[in-house]
Amino acid sequence: MRDGVSQSQDISAADFARASQLIHRLAGLHIPDSPKNRNLLKLRLTKLTRKRGFENLSAYIEVLLANPFVEAPDFVAALTTGVTSFFREPNHFTWLRRRGKTLLQQGRCVSLWSAACSTGQEAYSMAMTLADLDLAKTFHIFASDVDRHALDHAKAGIYSTSSLVNLGPSERAIFKKYSDPVDPEYIRMQEDLRRRTEFRTVNLHDESSWPEATFDVIFCRNVLIYFRSAEAVAILLALTQRLNLGGHLVLGHVEAGLPEFIGLRGIGHAIFQKTSDVRPHPLPKATARQRA
Ligand SMILES: C[S@@+](CC[C@H](N)C(=O)[O-])C[C@H]1O[C@@H](n2cnc3c(N)ncnc32)[C@H](O)[C@@H]1O
Questions:
Q1: Half-sphere exposure (Cβ direction) of 291: Cα atoms closer than 13 Å
Q2: Tens digit of pLDDT for each residue in 136-157?
Q3: Which of 23, 48, 175, 205 has a CA-to-CA distance to 80 between 20 and 30 Å?
Q4: Are residues 123 and 54 in the same domain?
């Protein structure tokens, strides 16, 4: 966990351990014990504790552990980091423009997966990039996250105009074409783009929640850094099985160092191509109660 927070720490060691074990079980996230993480957990869970009307953090954690199925969505939303932006890591979209052209020119439906899409900016950036090629619009974006609240935002497709201020001129021009003003402070992605982008809850830590389909391109960026490396590699292998032969997996730049493994060839900028089939490597299954 990377947010900058002050160093006060009055979450007990026992409560920290219980909460960090639970988030690992529910979503696979690894939150090592450190003063910074204790403080971060305390800040985020204190908000939730107040919202849910509990007297203190320990009381909330008791109820959480007794009813993980009921409480999990809010707990998972509170402890995941959803930082994202439109056209984040822009060279991935420059590459997608080139690759998308080749794929769309093959005349079949191109399928893409944004595998930890947060509030949807990544998925809509993919959709705008492909739509803007002005070829037949035969593509479908499957976009997913473990955080249901983030997905509600993504489905609505409404964003503050302040989230566009850091875009370059070409991205702004694309935006003008594919979004409509709601009022001076908000825009909404156009209906055609929203129709091509399907948002669903998928837990990368629980393969039984994954889509059955295979994809031409999978973006799985800036999420595996929160997993232990052995678990991250197991997820990468399982993602690779969801790629069509010749398909591409795009990781966050900070994740490019994750080991290159059988069947994947790095082509630069944390982009990997599947050049042969990989061995099956099932992930541990979470139970229905554990699922967020
Ligand atoms: C930092 S955001 C990255 C968003 C986007 N991919 C990007 O690069 O801008 C990390 C996202 O991963 C999601 N996440 C965390 N654990 C997950 C899990 N087990 N399964 C699916 N998504 C998860 C979080 O909810 C959050 O929205």
A1: 16
A2: 879 999 999 999 999 999 999 9
A3: 175
A4: no
Domain that holds residue 56: 13-79
| Annotated active-site residue in 15, 88, 99, 145 | 145
Q: 106 in helix, strand or coil?
A: coil
Going from the Cα of 224 to the center of ligand 1, the distance in angstroms, rounded, reads 8
Q: Active site includes 108?
A: no
Q: Tens digits of per-residue pLDDT, 154-189?
A: 999 999 999 999 999 999 999 999 999 999 999 999
Active site residue 145: yes
Q: Separation of 116 CA from ligand 1 center, angstroms?
A: 4
Q: Does residue 166 belong to any structural domain of this protein?
A: yes
Question: Rounded to whole angstroms, what are the CA distances from 30 to 21, 24, 34?
Answer: 8, 6, 12
Using an 8 Å Cβ cutoff, are 281 and 275 in contact?
no
pLDDT at 19 exceeding the cut of 60: yes
Report, in angstroms and rounded to the nearest whole number, the Rg of the chain calculated over CA atoms.
20
Residue 116 near residue 220 (C-beta atoms within 8 A): yes
CA 184 to mean position of chain CA atoms? 29
Residue 57 lies in a domain: yes
| Residue given tokens 């953090």 in the structure block | 57
Whole-angstrom Cα distance, residue 256 to residue 91? Answer: 14
- Tell me the pTM: 0.92
Q: Is the CB of 221 under 6 A from ligand 1?
A: yes
Q: What is the three-class DSSP state of 90? A: coil
Distance in angstroms between the alpha carbons of the first and the last residue of the chain: 19
Q: In whole angstroms, give the CA distance from residue 124 to residue 192.
A: 11
120 and 234 share one domain = yes
